[in-house]
């Protein structure tokens, strides 16, 4: 079968590899769609610690490079291994949650945690994958097979902090593109809340306005600083919660200036370089600083909400659908070089 194999930064090759078969406790899945994630872009540009190397295997999977990429994927069950729960049937559409196990159940924050399509175990940028059945969620008939995984990341972030008034930053570069997903989830739970979005790319500002943002700001506009605009919009108080999906120092600095005393700062981004925090702002405003790492046990609740129609218009966030052979030029390079045009690119094998 075809698979996009990661050999290291700047080196992704679409190759023929052996088609997997479902072992005991596993399901074989024919891939329908795989989204290219911000962490995939990180890996394409620089070495990322969760990936194995050519000589050092991942401590969970035992694999070295190359590994098959892709963790934002969904598909259809085409094979059922022995000892699999009877609820799984050939022909069911499914989505995968890819955090691997932790003895305490805290898969997303375990120091050794890793993911299908990053640490090994196959990946969604291929024609088929065999995965442990306990990582598979059956999709309701009314739910699209695209983009459930990034929605789960945003859902988990929302659960990390209660909100009434929120500001969410989505700055391109290597941002997750999670910001727009988070906006839709926040709006579904807070139909009357004030939600302020800071975003330099016009295409995402337009979509933010369309999908429920109360106020959309351009952080590159020197005549309208984001923190000043936020204070004006909140009568000088500041926002209850800030979500940062950028991994950019300027966004963190602005976020801490924008959050009210006793407010909450939630970091979703993965950072290439260690950021700094103005700890005096944290101390004197008694700001709660927390992180949100992927998800843990959020899929059932999320799928129920999507099936109930609470999150509409997700397809509008897809800017391109491509085939696996074009994953580098029309996928990775497009996301890196066309930040003002691309939001979410899906790959079909």
Automatic annotation (TrEMBL):
Cofactor (UniProt): Zn(2+)
Gene3D superfamilies listed in its UniProt record: Medium-chain alcohol dehydrogenases, catalytic domain (3.90.180.10), NAD(P)-binding Rossmann-like Domain (3.40.50.720)
PROSITE patterns: ADH_ZINC
Entry GO MF terms: (R,R)-butanediol dehydrogenase activity; zinc ion binding
One cellular-component annotation, GO: cytoplasm
Keywords from the UniProt entry: Metal-binding, Oxidoreductase, Zinc
Every Enoyl reductase (ER) domain range: 8-347
GO biological process: butanediol biosynthetic process
Matching InterPro entries: ADH-like_C, ADH-like_N, ADH_Zn_CS, ER, GroES-like_sf, NAD(P)-bd_dom_sf
Family in the record: Belongs to the zinc-containing alcohol dehydrogenase family.
PANTHER family recorded: (R,R)-BUTANEDIOL DEHYDROGENASE-RELATED, SORBITOL DEHYDROGENASE
UniProt-recorded name of the protein: Enoyl reductase (ER) domain-containing protein
